[in-house]
Amino acid sequence: MDGMDTGTLMILIVIVTFIFLALILPNIKILKEYERAVIFRLGRLLGAKGPGIILLIPIIDRAVKVDLRENYFEIRRQMCITGDNAPVDVDVLFYYRVINPEDSVVKIKDFRGAAIGIAQTTLRSVIGDIMLDDVLAKREYINTVLRDKLDEMTERWGVKVTSVEIREILPPSRVQNAMVRQMEAERVRRAMVIEADGNKEAAIKVAEGDARSEILKAEGDREATILEAEGIRQGSILEAEGDALALEKIFQTVRNIESKTLTLQYLKTLSALGDDDQTRLIFPVDFSNLTEILSEHIQKASVEEETRPQKKAKGKGV
């Protein structure tokens, strides 16, 4: 009997231990740094615990694990109508993180589904207020408006929308074709503008070069004219100085010539003038003065002829 009692006791201990471990071990939770556990005891919210080891009371406590890391969800190609009634397909990525674990569990059942629904309606509302050109050009503005509106709605759930990124905007094919043609026309226009600017700058450079060439040519002609005038002036000065020296030499020579010789030169000049066929003669001196000079020379010659025999006779008597 004692052996049977001991065996039965051991079996009971093993059973109790197994039941205890089966009840306790599932209620021992180890939470990572980015995890929190929202505890409910008998259905009443106790609060959020973690990170680390937490112990739950079996059957009485229930824990809901919440991830605090930033996460995202994608809204795949949504058909939206712009403010000018143009249909576009838009893909959007939403980034969020839980900032209040308790509200994210208590105040919303399926946050992801609710956020996707709100994001879709908000996206259509925002796109519907913007023209197609602005939808294509103002992505940052649309991202900011979507983030602000979604964050305002999800804040009461303890969730923060950190960023909204439009991944792709696809207008209709006819609009894409028109955009391609517009882009080609714009490129052609820019090419023409650039070519016109280049031609304009080239023309300006050529005109400036021609003007500079004309200026240099004019300056060269001016310098040449100045040098030529200076040469002519110097030549005139030297010629005048030569004439002055010649006249001075002539004057010195004439001063040393006897009056008879000078008178003889006058007579030769008159003879040469008389041989000319001209009817008008110009004398360089007064003609009456010339006759007086001739008379004086004749008288002197007569006196010398008369006195010459007397000088000879005196010479013989001596």
What features would you describe in this structure?
With 318 residues, the protein is an alpha+beta fold. 63% of the residues lie in helices and 20% in strands. The chain has eight helices and eight strands, in the order αβββββββααααβααα. The strands form three sheets. It has a three-stranded antiparallel sheet with strand order 3-2-5. It has a three-stranded antiparallel sheet with strand order 6-7-8. Strands 1-4 form a two-stranded antiparallel ribbon. A hairpin with a 5-residue loop joins strand 6 (71-81) and strand 7. The mean pLDDT is 80.
Write a compact overview of the structure shown.
The chain has 318 residues and is α+β, with helices and mostly antiparallel strands. Helices cover 63% and strands 20% of the residues.
